[in-house]
Request: fold
Amino acid sequence: MVKEQIIALIKDKRAHVGVVGLGYVGLPLLAEFARSGFEATGFEVDANKATQINSGKSYIGDITSSLVEELVDSKLLRATTNFDDLQECDAVIICVPTPLRKTKEPDVSYILAAAEEITKRLHRGQLIILESTTYPGTTDEVLLPMFENTGLKLDTDFLLAFSPERVDPGNPEFQTHNIPKVVGGVTPDSTEAAAYLYSQIVKDVHAVSSARVAETAKLLENTFRAVNIGMANEMARLCYALNIDTWEVIRAAATKPFGFMPFYPGPGIGGHCIPLDPHYLSWKARQHGFDSRFIGLAEEVNSHMPDHVVQLVADGLNDESKAMKGSRILLLGVAYKKDIDDVRESPALSIIDRLRAKGADVRYHDPFVKEVHFDDAHTEGGGEPLGSVPLTDEELRASDCVVIVTNHSATDYQRVCRLSSLIVDTRNALNGDVRRDSSARIIRL
Ligand code: SAJ
Reply:
C-alpha cells in the first residue's frame, strides 16, 4: 500500500511538499516545511505573490522577508503559478479561502478549483490534505470522488486527509509550529501518513478517526466563539435594559477560577472566521434536517449589534435634543478587532451604513486603515470610499458624538474624553479613571 512509501519519504525528508494557496495560512505552513528541511513548493494563482516570494519578500505579517529569502536561497522553498509542478509533489496541502455566498451558503469554489488542478496531476504515491475550513463531508464527499474518477484508488494509490488551520495572525505566542494540529484521514492509512507529515513541523499532533471529525472539530471551535460572543452581546442588551454595568458584571463573573470563560460584548463580530464558519456547520446540518438554533440565534444577536450601537448614539444625541440627521459623528476604529488593519466583515461598516441612512455626517479615524470601500453601491452616500481623518482636537471638538468601535491600543483615550462632548464606548476602552476625569458624557455598551 502507498502509506509505507509516503512515510519512508517523509522519514528521510525526501518528501516534496506542495502547498496550494499562499495566504496567511499557506505561506507560514510552506515556510515551516522548508525550515524543517523539506523541499517545499507553493502554488499560487496570483503571479505577483509568487514573484514576491521568489525574490525573497513576504507579504504576510507572521513571516519575515529575511526568512523567505533565506529559504529561497537554500533552494528549499519556491513559489510557482505552474500547477503542472504538482506532479513533483509527494504531499499536497490545500489552503485556499472558504467564504460565504451572499445567501450565507458555503462557497467551496476555491477548494474545487484547487482540487481540479490536483486531479489533473494526481498520480500513485501522493498524499492530499485539505486545510481550508469547510463543512463536514467536503473531504470524503467532494474531493474523494474527484480523485477516484481518475481511476486511482484511495489507499492503494493515494491518501486523503483533513487538518484544520488554526493560524492566529499576529499572535506572538502561538505560531504554526506550536499550535496543536488535529488530523483526520478518510482512511486510517491517510490519518497515519498525514499525522506523520505534520509531526515533522508541529510539536503536538492530535489524530482523529476521520476527516469529518477533523472538519467538525474546527467548526465547533469557532462556533463556540460565535455563540459565546452572542451570549455576551445579549447580556449587554439585557444589562442596558436593567441599567446595570455589563463590563463590571463580566469582570466579577470572571473571578470564578473554574467553569467560566469571559467573552465580551462588542459592536458586532467581524473577521473571516467567526462570522462565517458557523454557517458552514448549520448549512450541512440543514441538509440532514437538523436546525442548529444556537448558530442561528448567535447570528441574530451578533448581526443586530450595529443597530444597538446606532440606538445608543441616537439616545445620546436625543438627550441633548439633537437629531441624528445632520449630526457629525466620528467613529474611532473600523478594523474588526484592535491593533490590526483587517476590515473584513467589520461591524464598523454596518454602523457607518446605518448612521448615514439616518442622515448623519459620518467620519472615521483608524491609524491602521487608510480607506474603507463599501461594496454595496446601494449604501447611503453610494459606493464612495471613506478615508480615515486625522484625529485632531478640532475633529473631536466638532463631533456631536464619538463612537469607539475598535479599541486600538495607540489611541489616547484621555485626550478623546477631554475634547469630546458625547462618547459611545462599545469596547470598554475607557477605564474607570479616564471616565471619572472625563467632561464628556459617556454611554457604554
Ligand atoms: N469579539 C467580541 N467579543 C469577544 C471576542 C471577540 O466581540 O469576546 C469579536 C472581535 O472584536 C471580532 C470577532 O469577534 O470582531 C472575532 O474575534 P476573534 O477574537 O475570534 O478573532 P478572529 O476572527 O481573528 O478569530 C481567530 C480564530 N482563529 C482561527 O480560526 C484559526 C479564532 O478561532 C481564534 O480563537 C481567534 O482568532 C483568537 O483567539 O485570536
